[in-house]
């Protein structure tokens, strides 16, 4: 699991800045990684969401998947209705901690070309999503 927060703040630093926990959306739809691509697209459409948090069988967040990613898979020549989310997703992450400052997140997200970033607790459970407003 890759966490975005890397630098702890010293006691002599400036006052506490707004954190990811202050800005994240906690009402993000979560799905299991054994869900098929077609069902995930249906969940996304009914939730009117641009992305879904994907969790493993232990309930730990493993990925954030976008509508564009799922549509590209569905439209590929190798697609079948049996393709599950776990079949198309690579390594876990990236993720961020709710204690990451907004300044750090705002710096990292464009650098890594992220529009949204899952926020997880110390155990890896999803807490929400930090999305860049466009």
UniProtKB/TrEMBL annotation:
Stored InterPro entries: CBS_dom (IPR000644), CBS_dom_sf (IPR046342)
CDD domains to which the protein is assigned, alphabetical: CBS_pair_SF
Domain CBS: 20-68, 95-130
Pfam families, per the entry: CBS
Name of the protein: CBS domain-containing protein
Annotated source species: Streptomyces adustus
